[in-house]
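Raw record, unedited: Leucyl aminopeptidase family protein
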Amino acid sequence: MPYTFAEDTSDAIPLHVIESPAVEDWLGTQDERVAGWVRQNGFAGNLGQALLVPGADGRAAMALAGYGTRAKRARVHFALAHAAARLPEATYRISSGLPEEDTATECLGWLLSAYQFDRYKTRTARQRHLVAPEGLDAARIEIIAEAEVLIRDLVNTPTSDMGPADLAEAAETLARTHGADFRTVVGDDLLEQNFPLIHTVGRASATPPRLIDLSWGTSGPKLTLVGKGVCFDTGGLDIKPSKSMALMKKDMGGAATVLGLAQMIMKLDLPVRLRVLIPAVENAISGNAFRPGDILASRKGLTIENNNTDAEGRLVLADALALADEDSPDLIVSMATLTGAARIAVGSDIAPFYTDEDADAQALAAAAAKVDDPVWRLPFHEAYETKIEPAIADLDNAPSGGFAGSITAALFLRRFAGKSRYMHFDIYAWQSANAPARPKGGVGMGARALLDALPDLLKL
């Protein structure tokens, strides 16, 4: 399904976006017939209300979309999509009432309101087409919408069809589409090319582990995106209970997110040298699975005491980050569905991130607020460095005590990013309940904020 704007035609229905405090003033500009119809149908401009107003010939002359109040809109994503979900199939053209500063985000929400994951189920989506408002960079919004759909589809696909090989195929298709260079290191070749942690975590699976490496662009600052590609996580020998395993197809949400962001960057032809690194594995159980208490080697040369086989994401990311640092990029960004501690700290809707650079944090926070992609900075708290330093190895992948789990994981990863400028996101990548433009299932987190912040982060 294309996530695109409609052509402006004469039969597009004018849509008036009206805040609840402005309804009476708007009605004062209308004739008695329209005002009477609106009042009779109880339209009060509340968030999510929608109403068709017929003309003298009985056909729709206009449509109204309730926009609530700013305080109410702050409690939802894509406020206009809440009204769009209640409008009948037709083509609409926004005529008034949508604040200019909200237009891009609300139009993106409108396009995404058509999203359904229908790979395994026959469905007919309701089509509420929208004409792009004048002055909107419609092409950019369409590119962002298509990338968000890619993220959602990748996360929603079960591991039977989205294992390490399938994830590599999706990345290769993206590379081929945009003329990017692509390579993979698979199975025992990981050992030969010094990616021991990726091999260790993935070796028990029937599908061999691999490192996905995509490169695009010939000029500009170097941006390297590293995404956790754990396509399913049993927890390994420290096995998860079945309830905790139910959503583990989404443990490659970091990989999906960096691929979506990469698609945005390439389709927008941003002036950067982009690299995407994804360690793609399944954390399975068999006779050769890695064990609690094992001492593991890493690409960087640091040894790791493995105190929990369910803390595998930071292990595979460690080798990929070490490789990223060897190229001396201007910025490394890692995205990972890494810790339950992050969800306890900020819930499922916010992407916590880490950076040592105050200016980068400020730029990202401003971009996130602008595009309605919420993030929150957590600290690389130096005092917790001792928690990741065990007695018999250089590092501990699962410190005891249970406190500050997201922070200690971020500190662990920072050791492998070396001296490179580094930003890490601990995302959830999942929408827990149905909402307009955000149905239950996979969802992008942090990618749109990063895209908007890139001009500041990389001085583009």
